[in-house]
Fold:
Amino acid sequence: MKENIKITDYANRITEALPKGILLNSKHTKFNSMVIGWGGLGTVWGRPTFTVYVREHRYTKAQLDETGEFTISVPMDKPIPLIAKVCGTQSGRDVDKETEANLTLEAPEIIRVPGIKEYPLTLECKILYSQRQELEKIPAEIRAQMYPQDVDGTYFMANQDPHTAYIGEIVAAYMIK
Ligand SMILES: Cc1cc2nc3c(=O)[nH]c(=O)nc-3n(C[C@H](O)[C@H](O)[C@H](O)COP(=O)(O)O)c2cc1C
Structure:
């Protein structure tokens, strides 16, 4: 069951939860979920948006590029350790995260990507725009820390790959009960 929410009522909750790790879900070949720590609620072209930043070699990136849609799942409490570990350190290329992380999927309202019962605050998003970041434009200190050029792009944390920013229009927002 879902209960529609007003996004602005939950802006603080989303902003607080983000740096601890929320979930970016996608579904093309299969359902997949990855932990994200960067992103943000906003308004672009007069529409409510959630922007995510995804590195080049994430399995998630291929799925987003194919389907143009994603869901965001936010825990109402602390992140669940098994979910945080599986979705934040393993790739959908190698494992089925729905099974490995014991995720309970909830059918979506408008798009084709499910939400997750364990992280009930859900935003369904359709991608309006994507843009690959140019490493040369990133301040040198941040570039050195976040984009070490000697670390292969398949590594699960910071590596040589730039991020692509995806601006998603929020087309549905609800709490899974
Ligand atoms: C706390 C935390 C925050 C993360 N934030 C991001 C992020 O914003 N963007 C990103 O590309 N990867 C981020 N990652 C790394 C991905 O979650 C990780 O590489 C994941 O295994 C990718 O899964 P996939 O290959 O199935 O897409 C983060 C990891 C953790 C633990």
